[in-house]
């Protein structure tokens, strides 16, 4: 009888002791330290900033060669959008790799078992990882965007932002916001799929291939689908009204979302997929 009860009592005491020391701050700090131990973190952050700056340099250099290709006045929101738009796509895809690795890497190495042994309720780990990814990707994209504007303004003075333009703040802040949210989409898919290659292939394939193809196909039912595609909808937060009208004319849409309405659609995708990942985390074994 004593042989049966002693291990369970010891196990229960261990669980109580391990959870009693843990607070959300401790879990968050643990995940913050953990992500900086990944060799890929510095590489992806450095690569993202380099990609944003190099693309901005290329756009500013081409503006000096052929200034007539840019519409709008000097420093207008439309001109700054054209400067930052290439970085929105490629920068977000690089950070998707970091976001996916932050959670799928632990499944690949088996470290996730140790993590969940320390935090048996599991969900605090998922939320902490999400907060860390959101902070890190937004800060990276914000630094890259700021350096891009400084470099482009130094090369081509007409590309210095005109902050009196009512859309300028939304374009400049919306760019890192969109990039970080696409990265969170990769994180949410990683929580659900638990496989790095599958997660990265799904996000990149959907954003670069599937959404582009669906936007080109002229079929009436797709007019109700296009406005709610995650990347296309989310990018509206960093797009001036002039280009949103142009996009609506090129690909007919049944619903004309506002810039922040489109961003809310992207956030909705992240919430739904992350919720599915949380449900799998609670109900399935690791």
From TrEMBL:
* Keyword Transmembrane annotated: yes
Instruction: Please give the superkingdom of this protein's source.
Output: Bacteria
Transmembrane intervals: 42-60, 80-105, 126-151, 171-192, 199-219, 260-281
Transferase as a keyword of this entry, yes or no, is no
Q: Which UniProt keywords apply?
A: Membrane, Transmembrane, Transmembrane helix
Annotated protein name in UniProt: ABC transporter permease
Q: State the species of origin.
A: Cellulomonas wangsupingiae
């Amino acid at each position: 009888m004593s042989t049966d009860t002693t291990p369970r009592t010891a196990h229960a005491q261990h669980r109580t002791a391990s959870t009693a020391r843990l607070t959300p701050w401790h879990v968050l700090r643990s995940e913050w330290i953990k992500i900086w131990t990944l060799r890929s973190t510095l590489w992806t952050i450095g690569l993202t900033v380099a990609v944003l700056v190099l693309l901005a340099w290329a756009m500013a250099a081409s503006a000096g060669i052929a200034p007539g290709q840019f519409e709008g006045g000097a420093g207008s929101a439309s001109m700054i959008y054209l400067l930052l738009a290439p970085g929105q796509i490629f920068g977000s895809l690089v950070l998707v790799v970091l976001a996916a690795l932050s959670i799928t890497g632990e499944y690949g190495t088996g470290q996730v078992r140790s993590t969940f042994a320390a935090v048996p309720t599991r969900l605090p780990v998922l939320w902490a990882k999400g907060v860390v990814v959101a902070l890190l990707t937004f800060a990276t994209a914000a630094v890259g965007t700021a350096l891009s504007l400084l470099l482009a303004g130094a090369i081509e003075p007409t590309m210095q932002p005109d902050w009196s333009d009512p859309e300028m703040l939304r374009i400049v802040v919306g760019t890192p916001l969109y990039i970080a949210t696409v990265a969170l989409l990769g994180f949410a898919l990683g929580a659900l799929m638990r496989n790095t290659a599958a997660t990265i292939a799904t996000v990149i394939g959907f954003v670069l291939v599937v959404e582009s193809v669906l936007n080109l196909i002229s079929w009436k039912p797709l007019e109700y689908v296009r406005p709610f595609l995650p990347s296309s909808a989310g990018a509206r937060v960093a797009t001036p009204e002039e280009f949103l009208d142009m996009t609506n004319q090129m690909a007919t849409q049944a619903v004309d979302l506002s810039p922040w309405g489109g961003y809310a659609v992207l956030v909705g995708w992240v919430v739904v997929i992350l919720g599915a990942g949380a449900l799998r985390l609670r109900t399935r074994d690791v």
